[in-house]
Specification:
Number of domains: 1
Largest sheet: 7 strands, mixed
Distance between the termini: 41 Å
Shape: globular
Helix content: 25-40%
CATH class: Alpha Beta
Oligomer: single chain
Strand order of the largest sheet: 1-3-2-6-7-8-9
CATH architecture: 3-Layer(aba) Sandwich
Order of helices and strands: EEHEEEHEHEHHEHEH
Number of strands: 9
Number of helices: 7
CATH superfamily: Alpha/Beta hydrolase fold, catalytic domain
């Protein structure tokens, strides 16, 4: 999680890893296309399951892009391979961050959005590890560059994280303070975080701490919603909140469906 511990991946990695992403699922807008949101699944999942859920939401103006993460060895699983956006040593505050994997995930997000029309608002969101990758992508947008200093090319208008955490939290302040453009972007980027109080996988305090770190480093539009009986999954009440928030922050029309789109 790296709220208090090391903030980069292992220095022992000297060979660049090859990340082969899986299938991408796209849910086309049923109405006028006003926004495109990349949605990132959790550890061990794939883009298909979330695309099926997102297709049922009353957000007819959003195009959803649901990629599938690479299959790679996961340290917390003893090296057993799983679909994952980056490697995870353990779910604790002092675990190191896999910066190479995070940069790869953020770059994949940017590539998926590269050909969207200029007048379309861009969002990124996810669940669990996918929420972490989405939040990391947001910090790349804020600073204008990936962790490896290559430029981040996409403008992000909204970020949603469900049952997740903020990677590289300890170094976030250094990315923003004293950088005028980063400060401006942080102050205006809306972020919605939701977390269940009985989550036994990514515990509640990680979500709560992520919200606090964002707010204390200059993010002025952070909404944190907690759900007292929610574990490590989503529920209709939570998705209703996501829908209302996205409609507001992306200024989506509630127009009748346009079958011509």
């Amino acid at each position: 999680m790296s709220f208090t511990g090391p903030s980069v991946g292992s220095g022992a990695r000297t060979v660049r890893r090859a990340f082969e992403f899986g299938r991408t699922y796209v849910v086309r807008p049923k109405g006028r296309h006003q926004a495109t949101v990349v949605w990132l699944h959790g550890l061990g999942d794939n883009g298909s399951s979330w695309s099926q859920l997102l297709e049922t939401l009353p957000l007819s103006n959003i195009k959803w892009i649901c990629p599938t993460a690479p299959t790679q060895p996961i340290s917390v699983f003893g090296g057993f391979p799983s679909t994952a956006w980056f490697d995870v040593e353990d779910l604790s505050e002092d675990a190191s961050d896999d910066l190479e994997g995070l940069d790869s995930a953020a770059s994949h997000v940017a590539n998926l959005l590269a050909n969207e029309p200029a007048d379309i608002k861009i969002g990124v969101g996810g669940f669990s590890m996918g929420a972490a990758a989405a939040l990391y992508s947001a910090t790349c947008f804020i600073s204008g560059k990936y962790g490896n200093d290559n430029p981040f090319p996409v403008n992000i208008s909204a970020v949603v994280g469900l049952s997740g955490w903020l990677p590289c939290a300890k170094i976030l302040r250094n990315k923003i303070e004293g950088v005028a453009e980063a400060t401006r972007r942080a102050s205006s980027l809306p972020i919605l975080l939701c977390h269940g109080k009985v989550d036994d996988v990514v515990i509640y305090k990680f979500g709560e701490k992520s919200s606090q770190v964002l707010s204390s480093t200059g993010f002025q539009d952070v909404t944190f919603k907690s759900y007292s009986a929610l574990g490590h999954y989503t529920i209709p009440e939570e998705m209703d909140a996501v829908c209302a928030w996205l409609k507001s922050k992306l200024s989506l029309d509630d127009t009748s469906l346009d079958n011509g789109v």
